[in-house]
């Protein structure tokens, strides 16, 4: 699926997502707009009524088609748009588009069909975040309590993101070991998001070689951005 996030705004009210079936059997998905409440540790819980403070965009969101069937190696473009948003206050609004696999009646037989159905049962739904920015939004992002820790499973970095204003930060974490003359990137995590005033993040650092020194975490709008939105440091 590409892209893995839908970004809309007052100036850009239409976007598309392409989904491709890389499996060897036909797949059918049902599409729906859903809202998830986020906890301090990043857990997401589906709620039916987010309330006005949740800044949900579901009421203003339109998308088509709402059901797609893909043969192996086929792809489908899904179109999204927002309408009648003039009454909204300035700020970010959000939802998730849920691509949920469904069974087909002609796959409920026996023998080889049972094998196909088992594969469908094992699939999981895909949730794509959608952010709509209405107007010129003012907000601020800070990082604090950055640390690197170790347990029996490996090394982890931990940080708390704090946001102010009606914004929903979404982007990339990069962790660097900072020296006098050069810096070395030791971890990167894409698709970082926060929908609450403060959220704690914990990510495993693959292939990390523990060395003393100063480490810095930076949050960027995307993987290719040059200037960080926020940063914090830690001495190991």
Write the layout of secondary structure elements.
Elements: E1 6-9, E2 14-20, E3 27-38, E4 44-47, E5 61-64, E6 67-70, E7 75-82, E8 91-101, H1 112-122, E9 126-134, E10 139-151, E11 154-165, E12 170-178, E13 183-193, E14 198-204, E15 214-220, E16 230-235
Parallel strand pairs: 1-9
Antiparallel strand pairs: 2-7, 3-4, 3-6, 3-8, 5-7, 8-9, 10-11, 11-14, 12-13, 12-15, 15-16
Key words describing this protein structure:
single chain, about 240 residues, mainly beta, 6-stranded mixed β-sheet, 4-stranded antiparallel β-sheet, about 55% strand, globular
Descriptive report:
With 236 residues, the protein is mostly beta strands. It is built from 1 helix and 16 strands. It has one helix spanning 112-122; strands at 6-9, 14-20, 27-38, 44-47, 61-64, 67-70, 75-82, 91-101, 126-134, 139-151, 154-165, 170-178, 183-193, 198-204, 214-220, 230-235. Strands 1, 3, 4, 6, 8 and 9 form a 6-stranded mixed beta sheet that branches. β3 (27-38) and β4 (44-47) form a beta hairpin. The longest helix has 11 residues, at 112-122. The chain is globular, with a radius of gyration of 21 Å. It starts with 5 loop residues before the first strand and ends with a strand. 21% of the residues are buried. Mean pLDDT is 90; it is low at 105-122.
